[in-house]
Amino acid sequence: MIYRNKTEAYWELLLTIARDELGIESFDAAGDTGADMRMCRVEDIGRALERAYDMGLMVGHTVTRAGCAEESRV
């Protein structure tokens, strides 16, 4: 799978979560070796998704608070 948004701010965070929770070092395809396929425990996938969701909530909260602070200064 080819991802086009590797420069997005969230990309490094998602790779960090994948590395920590699933042992995935890169999202780049390994080629024809089949090395880009791996078995993951459902529990590990759930933990990775939960962590990504939590980070999304934290970022959303931070952005919302920053927007409210900006509006109150105007």
TrEMBL record:
UniProt xrefs under Pfam families: DUF6900
Protein name: DUF6900 domain-containing protein
Residue ranges annotated for the DUF6900 domain, each copy included: 12-57
Top-level taxon of origin: Bacteria
